[in-house]
Design a protein that fits this description.
The chain is an alpha/beta fold and about 260 residues long. Helix content is about 30%, strand content about 25%. It has a 6-stranded mixed beta sheet, with helices on both faces. A 4-stranded antiparallel beta sheet has the order 2-1-4-5, with helices on one face. Helix 3 crosses helix 4, helix 3 runs parallel beside helix 5 and helix 5 runs parallel beside helix 6. Bound molecules: adenosine-5'-triphosphate.
Length: about 260
């Protein structure tokens, strides 16, 4: 690991500079600087094709940038693999946390608690007593409001509850930073409200970066919003500011709606 550069020592957990991703010469993300403050909820929004997913995949290391650098807690992770980034505390929900449909909800979380992260084993080793493991698993289920579903098979869960289980299995890795890719997509109003509450709860002492299309969820949860358009940052700030920005309004109107 490189020595932490001084600019990332302050309050930023992530410091990405000049991020660029080209696909056969087409720049999906162009020279993006993204700093994410510790213990905040940060949303990436923008119209269709703005580069949100590409940017998210760059930060989570699912894509290699064509140019630019990414530091996490002062470590240069520009060329680090996702599993090693997870070991450094940045975990993407659904990355390591695919659920097993024919196991119970409790079993799914117990497996997640015993899962190796990167090339080091998680705190919960194979020798950890079953009781301790069960207690911790039940605590995680309580955190995501799934206690009453503990003995159900994962496959039987309603959609919104499945996403909550995926978040529980991600939290089992005790991430310092959690990345959520469209956490409320495909949900009805009730599940959206419950998921927004859940995100707020799990954000305590954690940093969250999410790509989210639902602007009321974004408005409700985010400390900072980065608005992307055509691969570039249009503006950044709290919802009260970015929602008034004429360029943001135009970018959304121009593509026929908020996404
Ligand atoms: N693997 C790829 N190969 C070629 N072009 C790509 C690839 N991935 C993304 N793009 C292009 O890059 C641009 C940005 O795509 P991206 O998926 O990051 O946007 P987005 O903001 O997430 O859009 P949406 O809201 O529609 O999901 C688009 O023009 C897309 O067609």
């Amino acid at each position: 690991m490189n020595a932490p550069p001084s600019q990332t020592k302050g309050d930023d957990i992530v410091d990405a500079r000049g991020l660029t991703k080209e696909f056969k010469g087409f720049a999906a993300v162009k020279d993006v600087d993204l700093r994410i403050r510790r213990h905040t909820i940060h949303a990436l929004i923008g119209p269709n094709g703005a580069g949100k997913t590409t940017c998210f995949n760059l930060i989570t290391k699912f894509l290699e940038p064509t140019r630019g650098s990414i530091h996490l807690n002062g470590h240069d992770i520009t060329r680090t693999k996702p599993a090693d980034v997870a070991r450094l505390g940045m975990v993407r929900s659904f990355q390591i946390s695919a659920t097993f449909p024919h196991l119970t909800v409790l079993e799914n979380v117990r497996i997640a608690l015993q899962r190796p992260v990167g090339n080091s084993f998680h705190f919960w080793s194979a020798e950890t007593s079953l009781d301790v493991l069960n207690d911790r698993a039940m605590q995680l289920l309580a955190d995501v409001d799934l206690t009453s579903y503990a003995r159900h098979l994962a496959v039987e869960l309603p959609y919104g509850r499945k996403r909550a289980l995926e978040i529980a299995t991600t939290l089992a890795l005790e991430p310092e930073m959690l990345l959520l890719d469209e956490p409320t997509s495909g949900m009805g109003r009730e599940d959206i409200a419950r998921t927004a509450d859940l995100i707020r709860r799990v954000s305590a002492n954690r940093t969250i970066l999410m790509v989210e299309h639902n602007l009321s969820v974004v408005a409700d949860l985010s400390d900072t919003i980065t608005v992307l358009a055509r691969g570039e940052i249009l503006t950044e700030g709290p919802y009260s500011e970015v929602s008034k920005n004429p360029q943001v309004i135009e970018a959304y109107m121009g593509t026929g709606g908020a996404h």
